[in-house]
DNA sequence: CGATCTATTTATAAACT
DNA sequence: TAGTTTATAAATAGATC
């Protein structure tokens, strides 16, 4: 949107694509920052870079911090509405998540989007857990993560196109 | 940005805030859509609404679908670079994720952002798993999820402000 | 590459319906 | 409360350094 209008399709020229990615990445971050500030909501963006590079991501912790602090400073009554005993709910919650069965159910239901995000989060955890080790080891882990995620993408795209589309249309 | 420039701070008037949220939510979605299309990357946004309403989110499955399909249609050689045997990596990966110890480590390292996102994802899975049950039950589960997430936010904001800030600054 | 500079295109705040 | 309009603020494509 500037000197010339551009078609909404993959930019073929790689250098132009990189420039556009960088510019728009910044713009998007700013937009999220403004939205969370102006409207008092928590938000984050997760963007995978091209498959030839390591994924670039922004969980945007600054925004989360700001909103958490705002909530902390809100009147007690407002908070108290949401702080009742959660034991039973937690029990049900735990029983239904983070197990192999649920994973299979999600797979069969075409919830690949969930799996991708979980993969990313697991990967990020690994990265953070190893941040104190030496750089070589960290680089190796990063490379491995990228392969892991990409492999999953390939597998899914080959096997589950229809389910993904179905899932997307329902949202 | 229009008839008048507005301050970058929480909009006090609730109706104005809601209008702005809706408009900017749409704008943000469009921006993500354009970025993923133009630059060939996967992306999604997760936005929690105010604490008085249920969270609004966009994992933007359409974008994911498009990028997955684009990758599927890419030349074989390009794909093959990323599809080598992942067994060893998977082994290491699994050993390090989805267990109570890692959760405690993450907590102690101030990775609250991870915990929030995992909570969201777990919640979303529950929602999808129950989508075939009756509406009353689904509503109940949704309410529970909101309480669960909000409770976690309260706990974190009361106990971990400093760690979160530290974590945010490092990113 | 990365930073700057504009001509344009977009996004959007406020007003209005 | 949800669209539509419009004047203005922002974002950004292409050029240049």
Protein topology:
The structure is a homodimer of 171-residue chains.
Chain A: H1 14-39, E1 42-47, H2 61-72, H3 76-80, H4 87-96, H5 100-108, H6 112-129, H7 135-159, H8 161-170
Helix pairs in contact in A: 6-7
Chain A binds a DNA duplex (17 and 17 nucleotides) through residues 1-6, 15-16, 18-20, 22-24, 26-27, 30-31.
Question: What is the helix/strand order of chain A?
Answer: HEHHHHHHH
Number of strands of chain A: 1
Total number of domains of chain A: 2
Oligomeric state of the chains present here: homodimer
Tally the helices of chain A: what do you get?
Answer: 8
Describe this structure in words.
The structure is a homodimer of 171-residue chains. Chain A has 171 residues and is mainly alpha-helical. Chain A folds into two domains: 14-83, SRF-like (3-Layer(aba) Sandwich); 88-170. Chain A has eight helices and one strand, in the order αβααααααα. Chain A has helices spanning 14-39, 61-72, 76-80, 87-96, 100-108, 112-129, 135-159, 161-170; one strand at residues 42-47. In chain A, helix 6 (112-129) runs antiparallel to helix 7. Chain A is globular and about 55 Å long. Chains A and B meet through helix 1, strand 1, helix 2, helix 4 and helix 5 of A and helix 1, strand 1, helix 2, helix 4 and helix 5 of B. Chain A binds a DNA duplex (17 and 17 nucleotides) through residues 1-6, 15-16, 18-20, 22-24, 26-27, 30-31. Chains A, B: GO terms for molecular function: DNA-binding transcription factor activity, RNA polymerase II-specific; protein dimerization activity; RNA polymerase II cis-regulatory region sequence-specific DNA binding.
